[in-house]
Amino acid sequence: MKQKKDIVTMLLAGGQGTRLYVLTKEVAKPAVPFGGKYRIIDFPLSNCVNSGIDTVGVLTQYRPLELNSYIGNGQPWDLDRMNGGVYILPPYVSGKEGKWYKGTADAIYQNMNFIEKYDPDNVLVLSGDHIYKMDYSKMLDFHNKNGATATIAVLDVSLEEASRFGIMNTNEDGSIYEFEEKPKQPKSTKASMGIYIFNWPKLRKYLIDDEANPKSDNDFGKNIIPAMLQNGEKMMAYQFDGYWKDVGTIESLWEANMDLLNPKSNINLNSNQWRIYARNEPHPPHFIGEHADVVESIVTEGCDIDGKLWYSVLFSGVTVEEGAELNSAVVMSNTVIQKGASVKYAIIAEDAIIEEGAVVGDDPCNYPDPSEWGIAVVGRGAIVKKGQVVKPKEMIEPDANR
Q1: Is 166 annotated as a binding residue?
Q2: Binding site annotation covers 357?
Q3: What residues does alpha-D-glucose 1-phosphate bind to (predicted)?
């Protein structure tokens, strides 16, 4: 028996995240920690619940174990429902062989049975690797009022940045007449955010036709959206003006964490009106020792701080020993920064050890040539030995034995 829903969310969370390098060597990109106590996927999941959407399919693929375990029954996001809730949807298995998702459209196609179980009028398609707060119910109202086949959320970017995005060219009423994928000479600055609402009966037809085309990339941006435009479907651009960041690179992930410390960045995680929910282990309160110096930083539960901390984000259970100095650093859970160590402009993954006197990263002011500087990264469980120097842009691989 079908359980009728106005809208169902399909959350694409299978990305390998190759541009995050050592940070995604063992986990999928949506499972990467963010902001002291969250993971990236917490943002779209929380947005769904805050928007009144209670049925979410999470499409996993690359290294799904940790992500699946983290989501569990969906209780932290109030998605442990009898009628709806959150469902983990791995690639479809037929016979003896599994079938990987070939593209974003194919991922939805393989899970049409899940969608049809709820007989929705519309389907919301999201990416699991963006940091933002958004009320999808307002976008849905816009979609319905305009009688659109598809509505695509867009964000105004600078003309210089526009060539990095899929650009929606629109009429005065917001209707889309052209889509350009990373144009060299963009005609507008309306960048696609990878957030789509589709009329489900229409989308279903396009997915079936696309799957039958052996030349298709089975991708929304490359195939489904252009096909809809070519057929004259009504497609609308929904303007979003809040904070949004694609954290698909080391630099953008570091920048997004730093934005949490900047009151002018337009991202506020302290609001009770739009909370971001997460699954967190219980920890005692953090402790600031007598030798500590903490300025403009996020320090999460279970931390033990006796060193100097400037403009940094610390996850739970981090230890910073006396004489250690951190500046513009992102340090993930259960890492130890030993005496006299220096960590600057760096990301340190979980369970790492930075031994006494080691140096990780450096201030960009010390590099007249900007191409020589970048964020230093230490992988999960890695050990930076006593006195070792990890230069800017250098990456220390995770320790598989820890």
Answers
A1: yes
A2: no
A3: 101, 166, 181-182, 192
Torsion over CA: 387, 392, 394, 396 (sign):
positive
Q: Six-digit token pair at 290?
A: 């007598």
Q: 349-371 burial by CB neighbour count: b if 16+ within 10 A, else e?
A: bbbbbbbebbbbbbebeeeeeee
Q: What is the distance between the alpha carbons of residues 393 and 381, in angstroms, rounded to a whole number?
A: 19
For residues 92-106, one letter each, b for 16 or more C-beta atoms within 10 angstroms of the residue's C-beta and e for the rest, the string is: eeeeeeeeebbbbbb
Is there a binding annotation on residue 234?
no
Cross-strand bridge partners of residue 58: 11, 88
CA distance 90 to 60: 5
Detail the DSSP E strand segments found in 300-341.
Answer: 304-305, 308-310, 313-314, 319-320, 325-331, 336-337
DSSP secondary structure of 242-260 = S-EEE--SHHHHHHHHHHT
> How far is residue 314's CA from residue 329's CA, in Å, rounded to a whole number?
8
Q: Is there a binding annotation on residue 192?
A: yes
Burial degree of 139 (CB within 10 A; 0-12, 13-18, 19+): buried
Tokens at 191, concatenated:
């960048």
CA–CA–CA angle 116, 120, 126 (5° rounding): 95
Pick the closest to residue 121 from 227, 8, 219 (CA basis). Answer: 8
Q: Which tens digits make up the pLDDT trace of 163-206?
A: 888 999 999 999 999 999 888 898 999 999 999 999 999 999 99
Q: Kindly indicate the confidence band of residue 99, based on its pLDDT and cuts at 50, 70 and 90.
A: low
Query: Per-residue pLDDT tens for 198-237?
Result: 999 999 999 999 999 999 999 998 999 999 999 999 999 9
In angstroms, what CA-CA distances link 155 with 112, 161, 189, 192? 29, 11, 8, 7
Question: Which residues, at least 6 apart from 113, have a Cβ–Cβ distance to it below 8 Å?
Answer: none
DSSP symbol at 175: B
* Sequence letter at residue 377: V
Is 181 marked as binding a ligand? yes
pLDDT single digits (tens) 6-19: 999 999 987 665 77
